[in-house]
Design a protein that fits this description.
Radius of gyration: 26 Å
Helix content: 40-55%
Strand order of the largest sheet: 3-2-1-4-5
Low-confidence stretches: 559-569
């Protein structure tokens, strides 16, 4: 932690990236005669992410941010703005959807892409990223784990106490440093939706305090993408679950023996397991779409598509998306052709291709594409009645287009969304996944037990955990002591994909049949379409909730007039 304080002192004006999350530890009683009750295990862990390539955002940016916030609050983003952003972003999103459809063909065993003679042609390569993050050692973040705090992250007051304690660890506790924090620094708090909502609520409650430090004007809460992707997967699960007689996820769960996924959740391994099955189902759909397209050209097998030039394959992929995965095709099916089964399949393919494109963007560090997806995600969450992420995405769009100076907008995209600890193009990960890994190191990899295990001991041990794991990784890289367990094979997915694809083919799901009805309980609501209708009301409620007056004066007299810091709000005196 001393090294971190030195870095902060040597780089004045460089923003701080801080992620924190709640943690529950199990303490034991070893001497009942003296200890009648085990300590409360609810606490909070925190990690500071320092990036050597992060720019310096000095006092002038802090002041411009506060002024632009005041102006932006009088001009909140509205429905017309979201509509324009969605229409502008969709052509690019559709181009990435086309590649996802093409890539499923290229990666199939039948196509054998590694032996395809045109495999280096630009038409079978991913589209150029919208805005890709740089890679290399200079862009790898350093992780500084702070002492774990015996403060539960639950209420607004708890979050304020956590923030105060963290800032005290970083050296911001004297009246002079606290004044400097409010007027010259920026702190980006990286957390899940609940954390960022709590911080915004605290800023709203303190909007009439007398200076920037007490009003938390220096704080910028930034929600994280791992938790958003989990919310997106729950939305897809809710939308396309269906029944065992339909063509959605429940049919796939029964077919693949994954009945544990019928009920969605956020705890445990649900996220990884559902993600795996989701991939199998969309691959089955797209493979069958390719066969339908190929039969129109008198081609019966996927391997025969190898004979086509890359440009024609790209055109066929675009035709596949236009026919089986576009909003225009959905409109025709609803208003002219009246085929509920084909409508379900088209909606499924469209939404899942968008999901795959977003996952690839996160993995490859294309933050520009991630930003383009925000209006589309907003419509989906509005239609799916996820009011929490509707508010979070609106806040982010408000920041990008109304309240953040260009330097702050670029900083959020470049340094607050993703991190890359391996230095390769396809190894980016959301920062909150790294925070969750820190929780795992505390609770699973390096658990502490024994009569002397208490919060004081944990506060001493946990800051050195990142060093322990770096040393362990280095030793493993040099000696390969655990090479036998470094890779795990998964059960073959080909069988599951083939089984579901056979169901799609025998049921003629992708064929047009006028007036065809889905079995009862299988109608999927189009969250995108519903979002268009529901978003206006959601925006009005969001605008009303953030319509409050913020003071703009800077009165620090109590700080300077007394040598005692007891009057300073941003100090944890525990």
């Amino acid at each position: 932690m001393q090294e971190l304080q030195i870095l902060i002192a040597l780089n004045p004006g460089q923003p701080l990236n801080i992620g924190y999350d709640n943690i529950k530890l199990a303490f034991q009683i070893f001497s009942p005669a003296f200890d009648k009750q085990a300590p409360d295990g609810h606490g909070t862990m925190a990690i500071v992410y320092y990036k050597p390539d992060a720019p310096i955002l000095g006092p002038s940016v802090n002041r411009r941010l506060q002024e632009q916030k005041r102006i932006g609050m009088q001009n909140p983003i509205g429905w017309d703005d979201v509509e324009v952003l969605a229409l502008e972003s969709f052509p690019t999103i559709e181009e990435f959807m086309v590649y996802e459809a093409l890539d499923i063909l290229l990666q199939s065993d039948e196509f054998s892409f590694h032996t395809y003679k045109y495999r280096k042609d630009k038409h079978v390569q991913p589209p150029e990223p919208v805005q890709a993050l740089p890679i290399g050692p200079d862009h790898t973040p350093r992780q500084y784990m702070l002492p774990t705090m015996p403060i539960p992250e639950q209420s607004y007051d708890d979050n304020l106490r956590v923030m105060e304690r963290i800032l005290k660890y970083l050296g911001f506790y004297s009246p002079e440093k606290l004044k400097e924090l409010g007027l010259e620094h920026l702190v980006f708090w990286l957390g899940d939706q609940l954390t960022t909502a709590r911080i915004r609520g605290a800023q709203r409650m303190r909007c009439q305090d007398f200076n920037s430090t007490d009003r938390l004007d220096f704080s910028i809460p930034v929600w994280q993408w791992l938790h958003l992707m989990m919310a997106l997967e729950k939305s897809l699960h809710k939308q396309f679950l269906g029944s065992e007689s339909g063509f959605g996820f429940l049919r796939a769960f029964s077919l693949l023996g994954r009945v544990d996924l019928i009920k969605s959740g956020t705890e445990g391994p649900f996220h990884e397991r559902f993600e795996h099955v989701l991939r199998q189902v969309i691959v089955a759909y797209i493979r069958e779409c390719w066969l339908v397209i190929a039969r129109e050209m008198n081609i019966d097998k996927l391997e025969d598509l190898r004979k086509l030039p890359p440009s024609q394959l790209r055109d066929l992929a675009r035709k596949l998306v236009d026919t089986f995965g576009s909003s225009a095709a959905l409109y025709d099916l609803r208003n002219e052709q009246k085929d509920e089964v084909r409508e379900f399949a088209t909606m499924f393919v469209r939404d899942l291709l968008q999901y795959l494109a977003l996952k690839r963007a996160i993995k490859t560090g294309d933050v520009g594409f991630m930003r383009l997806m925000l209006p589309i995600l907003l419509l989906r969450f509005a239609g799916g009645q996820n009011s929490q992420y509707v508010g979070e995405i609106l806040e982010t769009l408000q920041g990008f287009h109304r309240e953040w100076p260009p330097e702050v907008s670029d900083y959020v995209m470049s340094h607050c969304w993703l991190a890359n600890t391996h230095g390769k193009r396809d190894t980016f990960t959301p920062i909150d996944r790294m925070t969750e890994q820190g929780v795992k190191h505390i609770k699973v990899t390096n658990p502490t037990k024994g009569p002397n295990s208490n919060w004081d001991y944990l506060g001493t041990l946990h800051p050195i955990l990142p060093i322990i794991h770096q040393v362990s990784a280095h030793v493993e890289h040099e000696f390969r002591t655990w090479v036998r367990y470094s890779a795990h094979t998964r059960r073959d997915d080909r069988t599951g994909i083939a089984l579901f694809q056979r169901i799609l083919r025998t049921s003629e799901v992708l064929m047009h049949r006028c007036n065809r009805k889905l079995p009862i309980g299988n109608i999927a609501v189009d969250f995108m379409d519903d979002g268009v209708e529901k978003l206006l009301g959601a925006i009005e409620r969001w605008q009303e909730a953030r319509d409050f007056e913020r003071r703009k004066d800077e009165e620090y007299e109590p700080y300077g007039s007394s040598g005692d810091s007891s009057d300073v709000h941003m100090v944890d005196n525990e």
